[in-house]
Amino acid sequence: MDKNINFKHGLVDMLPMTIASIPFGLMVGALAAQKGLDGWQILMMSAFVYAGASQFMALDMWSTPVAIWAVIGATALINLRHIMMGAALRAHIYHLPSYIKWPYIYLMSDEAWATGIKASAKNKLTPAYVLGVLIPFYFIWVFSSLIGQAFGNLINDPAKYGFDFVFTAVFIAMTMGFWQANRHSMALVVAAISAVLSYHYIGGVWHIFIGGLLGTITAAIMVKPEELN
Questions:
Q1: Contacts from 183-186 at CB under 8 Å and sequence distance 24+?
Q2: d(CA 112, CA 134)
Q3: Other residues' Cβ atoms within 10 Å of the Cβ of residue 183
Q4: The model scores a pTM over 0.85
Q5: Nearest residue to 21 (alpha-carbon basis) of 208, 169, 155
Q6: In this predicted model, what pLDDT tens digit does every residue of 66-103 receive, in sequence order?
Q7: What is the rounded CA–CA span in Å between residue 166 and residue 155?
Q8: Is the dihedral of CA 89, 92, 94, 97 positive or negative?
Q9: Which H helix or E strand runs over 80?
Q10: How far from the centroid of its chain's Cα atoms is residue 31's Cα?
């Protein structure tokens, strides 16, 4: 199938994950409030850092005074996965104009990446489609984190409402969206197993990077040369 996908297509494709991001945004905002951050501070963090897992990690480590290098190191390690994600996305956005391509890279959440990769398997990505994927999700994330900060004292225990599982659920849903019962699935299996083992035996946030790295290496090994043409 090859059709001209537009803004509406991008918005609809991204809608389930946009809705799923709201509880996580509320949780990040609530944690920011409990750490003493003002509304404008979490607003700036969500607008410019714009990385849910990194924001959550940074806020979880937040103290007075802030251990700035520890926070930077941990969040940088989490975001190393974007190098591999960007490499995977490159071929699918290379044709886009720079004013679309670079904002896509900057605003490349895991959800936006997965949606773009999946859509590009059937259709050539268009500027309008990419904007439909990026813009609503971005503003919903910023707005939900701000709302979470405003009512942070009402969400003292996110796990009580199941908010702590939202991030995991979204990743499971994205992973299953790529699942195919063939040899390429080995990359997902290796990534999952190595991430779990790293989490238990190494600790920290190394499991994110190690899982992504070993999954990528496995995929590179499993792909046949003729499949790259």
A1: 183/222, 184/219, 184/222, 184/223, 186/218, 186/222
A2: 7
A3: 10
A4: no
A5: 169
A6: 778 888 887 887 787 788 788 888 889 999 999 999 99
A7: 15
A8: negative
A9: none
A10: 19
